[in-house]
Amino acid sequence: MKTIKVGLLGLGNIGTGSYKTLEMNKKQITANTGVDIEITKILERDVNRERDITVTPDMFTQNPDDIFLDPEIDIVIELIGGIEPASTFMLKALENGKHVVTANKAAVAANYDMLMEAAKKNKVMFRFEASVGGGIPILNSLTTALLANEFDEILGIINGTTNYILTQMTEFGLDYADVLKVAQEKGFAEADPTADVEGIDVANKLSILISLIFGSRVSPEEIPTEGITKITKDDIDFAVQFGYKIKLLATAKKVDKQLECHVQPAFVPSSHPLASVSNEFNAIFVRGNAVDELMFYGKGAGPLPTGSAVMGDVIEISKAIAKGSAFDHYAEDSIIENLNFVGEGQNKYYVSLTAKNVPGVMGKITTALGEYGIGIDSVMQLANDAQTGDDVSIVFILHEVTRERLDEALVSIIGNHFATAIKSIIRVM
Predict the structure, then answer these.
(1) Which residues are catalytic?
(2) Which of 95, 156, 162, 369 is such that its CA lies 20 to 30 A from the CA of 262?
(3) Rounded CA gap, 217 and 338, in Å?
(4) Does residue 339 belong to any structural domain of this protein?
């Protein structure tokens, strides 16, 4: 039986989950694959932390070269997180002929080309299934079972923290700040939740998905990104009245030779499968020209779900090593379709604003929108505001328009004093 030795960089939550996945299922994995996978060396500073796994002290090292330069180690798992030194560590492992597995979406998104090129040059395998969707096998499905398809759209809920917050706000009428505090107490949100709630985490994952599906590189910084920190209870209530739920969506679609993508809160029709995805669960919806529509659903985070994906990559590589075929075939750059990235494209929008409670104000606003070629799908005015004599709240669902054009119209509406404030602008799916 072939023994595959593995070096692990980082034994935090995901590292522990990956180790535990192998530990508790080792007999089954060995029986199903015919290979014996052993984690033999672990790069970790905190060697005394309590962990629900069996690790002997001699397995720990604080010198990464003990892993990179060990000729017996076949695979390196990178789980230390962050862009650096993780990217440098992965590059060094690849250059030393080690296959690499990671869950690090920030490093993969930032250095996708460099890492893929290093794997190609050194004839080793580079896998990152766990970087998108936690335990959901989305990347492997797209690059194996669904490879016969040309995809024109992918969208999904790929951050459990924000989905938990929005679910709690929707179902229990809670404020954002209150739900965030609970999410942090339950471990669904980090002490510093910025990467999650501002959409940065989702932009990293979407960048990776775009690279795999469309063969185009769009860096996370290029993707129009907005988080959920400005979503209010009023926005959620209006969404429900119009027949929607608010979700933070990652969206990329091909329109002719153009690529549109964005990360934004969106009104999702209550009838759409994504509307029913709640709390920390993730779901990814894809449309291929042969398979049509598919949705992948499951836990998008957590030590064991993510560890399952990590070990899935390790097993795939181990089986390839055992067969003597541990390398990938790469497409020639010339045959990859070159799409023109155009940002977020045209969308329907929900706009919430306030205006003086005077006769004719609604007509002035709708006329101003019409002057910019913006049609109105639905409109609602709050009657209780009108009774107080204060500013009246008005919400619109607008027909498809570019965000630039919409912003121009709203600047004009405010400038002409037709409205007193723009409260919310949210994309409508």
Answers:
(1) 205
(2) 369
(3) 10
(4) no
